[in-house]
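Worked Example 4.2. Read the sequence first, then its structure tokens.
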Amino acid sequence: MKNSASVKATLYIHKTLKNGQHPIILQIIKDRKVRKISIGYSAKKDEWDFSENKPSKKHPLRKELEAVISMKMATLSKQVLALELQTDNYSAETVVKKVKRKKASNSVNGYFEEVIKGLKKNNKIGNAEIYQTCKNVINTYTGNKELAFFEVDYAFLKKLESSWREKGWKESSISAYMRTFRALFNRAIKEEIIEQTIYPFKTYKISKLNTATQKRALNRKQISAIEKLKLPVNSAIWHAKNIFLFSYYSMGTNFVDMANLTKENIAKDQLQYTRTKTHKLYNTPLHPKAKEILNYYIKVQTDKYIFPIYSESAHVTAQQKANRLHKVLQKVNKDLKTIAEKCKISEALTTYVARHSAATILKREGISTSKIKDLLGHETEEITQVYLDSFENSELTTAVGLL
């Protein structure tokens, strides 16, 4: 027979408060172990009915107190039932922890902080920063008001969206923050912090936001112009050029993955590493020009990292690495803007453009989507097709003209 937990209200006479009264508590009893939760009210001994476990008629706040006790006992009983549906192996302590956590995390800010702390603990610094930024922009809108989950409804999200539009934010930025906010709600529901019934993204659709942006892909002539550009060896802009070209010739290696490359990631003529974003093994043949760049850095390096982004001694923790990555990426993209100007390239040049350019040029050469998928490290061909469709309009027009 299942040994269920019991819940009851009582006056805790073993503790006397400064006002001479005793705290009213809820007791959770399971397997002869008792855990207590204070409800924030107190009473004198003659204001409590010990036989009925409720405030007596002498208590000045009897009706209010009865309502509070009833509500809090219902919450505890609901938590006990939920645990019993999952397992027999739970304790009174488990019930208390879940209720306290639910209460602490019922505010949007409180749960944001909990998620951010958990991500940092697991060294997911990038994701933690995304949630932190989202929290900051929402707090700016609310004026740092303590916001409860149930207050975030369709009307709130529409006003939030409008406020961001008034500031001139791009749709892609609005969509990114809304997706992070939605992910927070999904986490809270999954962890039983909030009920599915208050989920606002059933009616507020992020998909309606127009996030289509013009993807920038260079052609071979522009890539060649960058290669031929003469820059002072070992200058910051020279390293930026090498980083861009290596990314291009290694089929769009992401900046964070380049930063983490060591000699152990080079096996004969293959580049092998686990992608930071997907945690999937990436294994691709090395283009001769990518090998040439690698060989230079391997020859001159005094650190375990191939590219001069991280330092083995200075960037040890995940937070140190994240800070360094952000700083260097900003500098590299600034230098790439200068390179674009020198090469008379009108497209905005960033490290990510190398990835788009490699995929586009392969597509122009007739390489199948399935092959490009493998090289890009995408999960499915559908993802690759969306990736290509976003900037292949001119190629499609040319193809139709050849029919």
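Now turn to a second chain, presented in exactly the same format:
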Amino acid sequence: MSDALRLPGQSDRFFVILNPTAGALEPGRLRRMLGGAFAHRRAAFDLVETERAKHAEELAREAVARGYRAVVSVGGDGTLAEVVTGLAGSDVPLGIVPQGTANQVALNLGIPNNLEKAVDVIVAGHTEPMDLGQLDDGSYFALIAGAGWDARVMAIATREMKDRWGFGAYLYAGIRESLAPASARYRITADGETIEVEASTVLVANVGEILTGLIPVGVKLGPKISVRDGLLDVCVFAAKSIPDVAAVLWRVASGQFAGDERMIYLQAREVTIESDPPVVTQVDGDPHGKTPLTLRAVPDAVRVLVGE
């Protein structure tokens, strides 16, 4: 960004975007904790709370135009998806203070859940490039987009449930959906090559681990997933019964990705998912309508503040 676009003093300040509905902390207390953390480190900042869907994206775009030192997302993976959509392609770095239910993007990047330590990373860390996925509506995602089983789980785990039970809301929803896993006929086109398969869920991943920080050991979702390879990873799971669900989960948890027809892995720069019948979809944990779903990888789309 040219110096002509920078307003006086903004280039030394952090712009903090807070989702007041994310996480378990009361918003007033969270604001005080953030203020104390930045003040203790003598880091100037401005803080704005989101008021509606897509507001974080709008605020991030405004912060880029005003030339802030960095934009900080305070919330969960859904808030982060909006913020990176506003930042993508700019030279303004992303800082993350994890305050959601799962915080999987932050944990994949090694950013601590502890607020003070996360602010340490923002103020004293360095930037590294990170790929993003982009949907055909122009929005971006940092974690995972999916169709089928996982999207139904996300839809069942409502905000009220997450506020009450935390990660337990996802466990409840996952168990409920696993009792009778529905399937559909998927048509998946990856870089021009098409496969058709009966499956229960199709995931398109940008980061590699799930359940990181929520169980004692993080689970690698696929064999080659990286946020810096310029590719999206398509993970197809064809579990048709409770034993199938258990078997697939066990193989994923133990890193056995080959040799099972219920598990298919592809890598591609562009992916389209179609299904018969249409199924619900999710992007970074938030509902996103139904299939078809078209996505592409955007290499080095954003710079992220990470620790040493």
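Notes for the reader: The chain is about 30% helix and 35% strand. The domain at 3-124 is CATH 3.40.50.10330 (Rossmann fold).
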